[in-house]
Specification:
This protein is of the alpha+beta class. It contains 25 helices and 22 strands. It is elongated and about 115 Å long. Bound molecules: adenosine-5'-triphosphate, potassium ion and magnesium ion. Keywords: ATP-binding, Cell membrane, Ion transport, Magnesium, Membrane, Metal-binding, Nucleotide-binding, Phosphoprotein, Potassium, Potassium transport, Translocase, Transmembrane, Transmembrane helix, Transport.
Length: 707
Amino acid sequence: MSTPTTTLAPDQDASAGRPTPPDGRRVGAGLFDPRQLVQSLPDAFRKLDPRVMIKTPVMFVVLVGSVLTTVFSFKNPGDWFGWTVSAWLWLTVLFANLAEAVAEGRGKAQAETLRRAKTGTVARKVDGTVVPGTELRIGDLVVCEAGDVIPGDGDVVEGVASVDESAITGESAPVIRESGGDRSAVTGGTKVLSDRIVVKITTRPGETFIDRMISLVEGAARQKTPNEIALSILLASLTIAFLLAVATLPPFADHAGAELSVVVLVALLVCLIPTTIGALLSAIGIAGMDRLVQRNVLATSGRAVEAAGDVSTLLLDKTGTITLGNRRAAAFLPVPGTTEAEVADAAQLSSLADETPEGRSVVVLAKERYGLRERHQGELAGAEWIEFSARTRMSGVDVDGRKVRKGAASSVIAWVAERHGEAARHARGPEAFQDARELTDRIAAEGGTPLLVAVEDADGARVLGVIHLKDVVKDGMRERFGELRRMGIKTVMITGDNPLTAKAIAEEAGVDDFLAEATPEDKMALIKREQAGGKLVAMTGDGTNDAPALAQADVGVAMNSGTSAAKEAGNMVDLDSDPTKLIEIVEIGKQLLITRGALTTFSIANDVAKYFAIIPALFAAVYPGLDRLNIMGLSSPDSAILSAVIFNALIIVALVPLALKGVRYRPVSADRMLRRNLAVYGLGGLIAPFVGIKLIDLLLSLVPGIG
Ligand SMILES: Nc1ncnc2c1ncn2[C@@H]1O[C@H](COP(=O)(O)OP(=O)(O)OP(=O)(O)O)[C@@H](O)[C@H]1O
Ligand SMILES: [K+]
Ligand SMILES: [Mg+2]
């Protein structure tokens, strides 16, 4: 294993915890540029293919209507009305396709950049053979050195290196990838900047992370989500109902002595069926995915994004998510009978090989405050290092017949108790730990993490004192959790820390609940319990330990810096490896659902008004009394029908920016949001056409020959 030539410490993973702008939006994201409409025009025409159109039944009906009215117009070439209606019906279909094309267009540029990262890598296998990156198989071991582009996805099995992941994250600062830990996954297409690593390939060529990212941002892998399918069925049913209703009109009109042309019937049908939402539905879904991509989150399915919108329980890690995560040693506190320097010395000794941020901070504090110099590995030949694990909650060293341990109070006390057996000096049993307990409880009550330091030597096993680890709750957490609460989401903090510390931090941060001394099994059990109560659960994770829970959660966000297992198990990956992102993901999911709901409401409401424009127009000649329904006072039957058709088409384009950007979103309960949106978009949907159609009618009446 080569030593890293970079000075970047592993916890300085540059992307982790990168500050996002206050509103969570990257510059440029969500902005709508009218030029996109023009750029997407060719795609909009391509989508006129009936095999593509049939996937949106509402718009397919409009397409058929356009063909019918066009055929009719060819038969009656002198009928300007038929031609105009046909033209606007074609525009309606085109506008719908345009909405989808614009939504897709935003991912295309990103896909292009990604493709560039992919082309032509070669892989050097450990056995010395060189093969093209496309011929790698799962399990192959490849060597990557400074300057190499990593040929495929995998886990580092040997070495540590700094890697430039800007090809996928857009972030130029290098990150550390190393074997063994929760930072072992590497992505094909990223570049090794220093050192040498051996990577075990975990995905087949063509199915790599970048391949998946490309199909994702291009929308190629997009499938309708369950909610979209349900809504599509509703829209199709409405369409069939209106189709039947319109079909009964000719006999009825015949009977009354009125004559209804194909053009008028098609125009009526198109105005009544929910074309607005039919046209915008897929754009809304794509835009939701895109909003996630803009924040460097990749969802494997639209379903995951939707689930994020329905989540009612959020599991958040304490360290690094709610707190800053650089938990540092702040003081060494001796129990009566030992000195501070003794505690510092033992603490430092136990931490010399402890690469966790906590371990390194202990070494630093002992050096700074107590002038203890770092002992070199050479002086400690024969030492057996005990690495920290979340399960044992301890770390330490066995050297020169002396065993030193530091760790969570319960673990260290158990370790000492196991050792001194019947020794006289510990005859008081658990009470012997009273002094230590008092110290740890005091630290924990302030939200600090106490680590007990203990030794076993010729004098027996005993607790020496306590290390006070300090961590700081991130700014603005209380407000964020307040927002989540208003949305009706319960937040649960999960930590391996003791219950007292957990309680103090939970109170300070304002989470609803906490789970202390949590093992991976506890996490899993918690998720299952919440789900059994019919709730959707979201969580983040990075370790192999987290994989089962990530898979079980409805929304499992894996950190890009984490292990391949975690990334495989979750249904989202955060390229920035920022666990706080989960909160934004939920907001994006909610916004997606709300946007879809709002535009559906608007669509159905705005069709009602068209009724009042068209029905009186149809029967004005035979039933003059119906003219009372003509509350808009439209100038003529032809103008009324045409105005309604034109409005019906234009409203689609007018709403494209809203569909892409999402409706304005505030953290309130789903109930209040629903009521508010019914009021705004329902009422708006009712009123807008009255105004719009009247205006168009006025404009049309200026054209000679109409009205
Ligand atoms: N380097 C270490 N050496 C010894 N003990 C440690 C070390 N780091 C942490 N501990 C102890 O182990 C406990 C569990 O740590 P772990 O990292 O699993 O959870 P955590 O960081 O407290 O919470 P989170 O789940 O949010 O990461 C800590 O509360 C602490 O008491
Ligand atoms: K309509
Ligand atoms: Mg931890």
